[in-house]
Amino acid sequence: MTDPHAKIVILTGAGISAESGIETFRAEDGLWAQHRVEDVATPEGFMRDPELVVNFYNARRAQLPEVAPNAAHRALAHLETHHRGEVIVITQNVDDLHERGGSQSVYHMHGELNSALCAACENRWPAPMVMAPGDPCPRCAAPAARPDIVWFGEMPYEMDTLFAHLGQADVFAAIGTSGNVYPAAGFVAEARRAGAHTIEFNLEPSAVGNQFQEHRTGPASRTVSDWVLSIIGRQ
Ligand code: BV8
Question: Which atom of ligand 1 lies closest to the CA of 60?
Answer without folding.
Answer: 44
